[in-house]
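Notes, Module 5: Reading structure tokens.

Key idea: the token line is not a picture. It is a compressed description, and you learn to read it the same way you learned to read a sequence, by spotting repeated patterns. We will look at two proteins. The first is printed below with its tokens.
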Amino acid sequence: MSSKKKRRVRSTFEDYLKEQGTLEETTAIAVKRVLAWQLEQAMTKRQISKNQMAKAMRTSRSQLDRILDPENDNIQLATLMNAARVLGRELHIELV
């Protein structure tokens, strides 16, 4: 698929979400799903259990479950930064 065609599809999909009034919500959910997936992948790679992760973050297992829940987009930035730090990773956020 050509670059122009990919760009047009993306633009059309974004336009559709804007028309539906769901672009921001959909974007937030997608970002949270990716972050949850990345955290779980990093935990697996480092062989860190949920209990170990929660303890290292100085939080509860239920709080960690909320962080890893791809549907929960109400997580504080400091919490995500703490999770990344425990896993030896960095959290990067940018405005585009």
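Here is the second protein, with the sequence above and the tokens below, as before.
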Amino acid sequence: MIGFDLTPEQKSLQEKARQFAIDVILPVAAQHDRDGTFPLDLMEKAHQEGFFTPLVPKEYGGQGLGVLDTCIFSEELAAGCMGIYVSIFVSTLALFPIIKFGTEEQKERFLRPFCSRFSIASYCLSEVMGGSDPASMRTTAVLDGDHYVLNGTKMWITNGGYADFYLVFATTDPGKRHKGIICLIVPSNLEGVSHGEPIDKMGQRASNTTAVTFNHVRVPRDNLLGGEGDGFKKAMAALDITRPMIAIGAVGIARSAMELATQYAKKRIQFGVPIAQHQAIQFLLADMSKDIEAARLLVYKAAWLADQGVKNSKEAAMAKAFASDVAMRVTTDAVQIYGGMGYTKWHPVEKLMRDAKAIQIYEGTAQIMRLIIARQMLQEVERTF
């Protein structure tokens, strides 16, 4: 029998995150969006609340939560501000491969200090010419004695200017494509590590996004995560876990847009009545509600499968593709309901629309998600009837 009630613990997590969003995120979100500044003090508070370390086992100082638990509280943070949420989330993206594939020594060396004091991590996969095709990456790692010499530039790196360490994917042999990729844990204070200026983005402007350059950086061989040639698998495994967390962020944005549009529609008078009484507006609101609910359920299933240890590549891609499209559609319709006011910066719905667009691009574009879904479908050759 399937149940949809949250446990008392999950409800408590949800309420804690909702209150954090109301008290801490919402009062500063608009200002950081306007200025494109990174809310470092807020990030420290979020770390103290455990929002940076949900998946880290308790024995290393983390919260020891599951993926579904994390999605439940993440929706609330994203409803406050997606740009702020994504900077909180990316540390989980960078930490998960260490949790899953790291040696005991690596977990002690990186996870425990990260949990015990305010720290930020970053995930370095994309490059200017290697976004949807990471196997074409040009960042190289050449073994030299007990060190890898790392050279190259990563692009669109969330938290790039503030990370204490980067999880970096590089190739030992570009000719091997995905089979030549390795994964290295790279402290940001190593000689030769640098980052560019914050990228001036359309949306999610509170999130720090930069290029990160590695110039003859000597990385200890002990910082290799797993073996040589299996870095691509680690990158994909991490994304299967974290795509539901990005998808639930899209749900949070869409929910905020729907709530704002509903409130406005009940107050805005046209033709002598609130516009909420007009069928055209009611249809827009109804579509918002049903699509948000469907997106949330897709996310919950993908997250639940991950918690069961079941391969969820298709479901995670479904959740990411559907929820990001829903967020874009709902926020656009919210602007439409606001009319001319929605197109100004006097109201928050234009920010939500700008923030929503990025979710169709990062962590795998909407088109790549559809490729993943189709390929998984085609591999399932057994007939079901």
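Summary for the second protein:
- The chain has a mean pLDDT of 95.
- The chain is about 50% helix and 15% strand.
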